[in-house]
Structures are given as structure tokens and as C-alpha cells.
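Action item from last week, closing it out:
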Amino acid sequence: ITRPFGSWIRLGTVFTDLEIPCGPPTENHFCGKCMRCVEVCPAKALTGNAWYPGIPRKELLDVHACDRWKKEHYFQFHKGHNCGICSAVCPYGLNVLKKRADKSFL
């Protein structure tokens, strides 16, 4: 969860030999303790553990459970997309969307 985009981010990889500047890794997290994402995850893939720099992904998310669920229930997600229910219910993410929507109408 980031300050400018809330929960509405996706991590990806780009293979290149170009030098691309980057900022420092994030040290802050903006996740609260509401557990809405954990409660609504249909795959029960989220652990509810608090994020910290360097935390192994498996301590936050069971990727295999997520993949199994989406393959069994959402044929349209077989190409690597996730259902996004966790992002949709995140209060921080919803606040970011509201602020961005308000600015777009100025």
C-alpha cells in the first residue's frame, strides 16, 4: 500500500539493459488493522500479518492458494490476473480513489 496509490498497485518486472533511476525502498506501511482484505479473500490466501521491510511474501500471502482459487473460479484470470477483491475493500485504497476522483473533476 503506497501513499499516492493506496492498494491500487501491481508489481511487475521489466527486463532491460537501460539504467533506470529509482528511489529508496519504502520503509513505511499504510495498512491499518481492519483486516477487511483477510476477511473477504475467497481463497483465504492472506495471512493478516503486518508488513515490514524485507518480510518474505509467504508470510503475507499464500500465492498457491490464490492461484488455485482463481483457476477454479475465474477462467478469465488464468492469464495471471488476480481477482482484486482485497484491493477493492481496502479503506486506504478507497480513500485514495476518492481523492483522485475529486481532483479529476476540478
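Closing note: The mean pLDDT is 82.
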